[in-house]
Specification:
The protein is α+β, with helices and mostly antiparallel strands and 321 residues long. The chain contains eight helices and 13 strands. The chain has a six-stranded mixed β-sheet with strand order 3-5-7-8-9-10. Strands 11-12-13 form a three-stranded antiparallel β-sheet.
Length: 321
């Protein structure tokens, strides 16, 4: 079986119809492709055709349209920048980036990409856009930030694309100006099922993290934000929060060191005071002993003088009782 590759003169590259969804996006068997030889032939032909398709260097990476509001941009940054250090080289997190999944989409420019998406297992190198036929995988988690102009599309058209074409395992939407409009889905079979909201958070099985509502101050805006947290409820911190936490820990360590030094100084001072008091008591005892000896010596001298006087008078002092 061969694949017909269609040339698009305007774009300057060859393109082809996408394969059945399971080959590129999903692991479940596809009805009608039971013949292993036929499937192997198809995959081989598709791989050959992918070499003729555009890459991220050939495709637009930006349409110049900013996000709906400053709040939306800050919310996206909060999700992306807090997840990136935790994710490391285990995956990739992108924000407001084009996601290309079919040549038809490239031609029609009918869908640009999610506000936030995460793909596991493909490293954290820099990308201009996410091209599924180049990466070999669609995102595992997608988050859309709702607005008045996008909410309907995010809840219908895009949700269908994530479910039926990209096969995204988990999909969440959140309205930064209406935190109660917060919903999550997980792929079960071939359709999305609602995730339960518990204690104002959803659990992402793909990441092993929670998405929770957090009231706090970020970029001079105090409101309810959407944030990542561990399953134990500890927030994933932003780089500046990690730096601030490190500075606070260093400050506390210095303060504790100063407190220990002050305690040691006070202990030495008290020990010195005790030593001086002990020395004073010893000196007092010495003086008391010396005074007692002086008194005893004076008493002995008086007794000797009295005995001498008695002897001079012819009286034997030893005979006196």
């Amino acid at each position: 079986m061969s694949l017909q590759v269609e040339r698009n003169p305007a774009a300057g590259f060859e393109r082809m119809p996408p394969p059945p969804s399971h080959h590129l996006y999903h692991d479940q068997p596809f009805e009608g492709w039971a013949d292993e030889n036929l499937e192997t032939s198809f995959v081989s032909a598709f791989d050959d055709a992918c070499a003729l398709m555009p890459t991220q260097d050939d495709l637009p990476s930006c349409d110049g349209v900013p996000m709906e509001t400053e709040r939306h941009k800050k919310q996206m940054d909060l999700l992306v920048y807090s997840l990136d250090p935790w994710l490391g080289e285990r995956g990739y997190v992108g924000g407001n980036m084009f996601v290309y999944y079919s040549p038809k989409q490239v031609k029609n420019e009918d869908f640009k990409g999610p506000d936030v998406f995460i793909t596991l297992g493909l490293g954290n190198r820099e990308r201009k856009s996410w091209v599924i036929w180049q990466e070999g995988k669609s995102p595992d988690v997608v988050i859309e930030l709702l607005s008045e102009s996008t909410a309907k599309k995010d809840k219908t058209t895009k949700k269908d694309v994530y479910q039926n074409q990209l096969k995204v395992a988990e999909y969440f939407w959140f309205d930064p100006f209406n935190p109660t409009d917060f919903h999550g889905f997980r792929m079960t079979g071939r359709v999305y099922q609602d995730l339960p909201l518990k204690n104002d958070c959803f659990t992402s099985q793909s990441l092993g993290l929670k998405l929770l509502l957090w009231h706090g101050l970020y970029k001079n805006v105090e409101t309810i934000w959407l944030r990542w947290a561990t399953l134990d409820g500890d927030l994933l911190l932003l780089p500046e929060e990690i730096e601030a936490q490190g500075a606070e820990q260093e400050r506390q360590q210095k303060e504790q060191a100063l407190q220990r030094a002050e305690q040691e100084r006070q202990q030495k001072e008290k020990a010195q005071e005790r030593a001086e008091a002990e020395a004073q008591r010893a000196e007092q005892e010495r003086q008391q002993k010396e005074q007692a000896l002086q008194r005893a010596e004076a008493e002995a001298q008086r007794a000797d003088r009295l005995a001498q006087i008695l002897r001079e008078q012819g009286i034997d002092p030893d005979q006196m009782s």
